[in-house]
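Pinned message: reference record for DNA replication and repair protein RecF
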Amino acid sequence: MRLERLQLQGLRCIADASADLDAGFNIFVGANGAGKTSVLEAAFLLSHGRSFRSGARDVLLQRGAPGLSIFSTVRHDNGDLARLGLGRAGASRWDARLNGEDVPIGQLIRECAVVCFEPGSHALIAGAAEERRRYLDWGVFHVEQEFLPTWRRYQRALKQRNSLLRTDASLDDGLYGPWEQELGRSGSLIDAWRRRYLEALVPNLRNEAARLIPELGQVDLRYRSGWPEGEDLSATLASQRGRDQGRGHTTAGVHRGDWSLSFEHAPQREHLSRGQEKLVALACLLAQARVDAAHRGEWPIICLDDLASELDLAHQTAVLDSLLEAPAQVLVTGTEIPRALQGSSVKVFHVEQGQLSPLL
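Predicted structure (tokens):
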């Protein structure tokens, strides 16, 4: 798949800009603060419904602008076209449009898959479990059609059980039962989908890790479901109800799941340098792109933000050579064209004060 045209209004420092993108490599160059990252952020928003940058949603809106909007046309490898739109006014909720019709945001983001490596990506390895669950569930979402409604049922039941746990009065056990049964049903489905997805991910992860960080040896992945292995989730919740009442929230379930990596020559996360954490995160993201490509029959869009400052030349070359061989659209930002791409067939945009101008 590829974005053919990207139109942005009111996004950070970009008042009104558009770009007709190439099917291969697109390089956005300019000074720091010119708006390069916001272009990648726009593509990511269409695919995730959130930014990869931290902070409140309000900072996405250009100061003084009444609202922000992102429009793009996605062409799939089979020739199908989809017109995507995402916007909001002020602090309101996102409005999503697909082919001119209002749709739930989940329907919009299923249409477009974007994988992004950016300066904060090392949090996938060094950060909190929430980052790793988000990565995992985005992958499962694009593979399992029933993931989103199942996840919503799980979240509704979790909210209801947590509300009961925080009630001071002693409540009848019968009030908890229906919610714990729903958490058990939907949670077990999500857990099974996650495990199946990771089975497909690991071989691709090992290939990418061998390419980028061979000095670490073979990688192994360990997944933890969020409750004791082999136990029924509903039964676990019932048995832990008293402890959960003391804490005021549910302490077992897929919302507590996590996964971790260990390498033959770096068995603990603490053995990795910051640079190696970035490379491991990049290997995870490229592996996810390959799993998505195998499932869809077309590559997702790859975004690489500030690549030259994140990776040394040897690793830049390894990554870009790999992507040059893949039929993927790639968006790259930097203060200049990466050395590894100089001489290659690429489309270059100059970004200055929120304006995009094609150069090559």
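Pinned by admin. Summary line: DSSP finds eleven helices and 14 strands in the chain.
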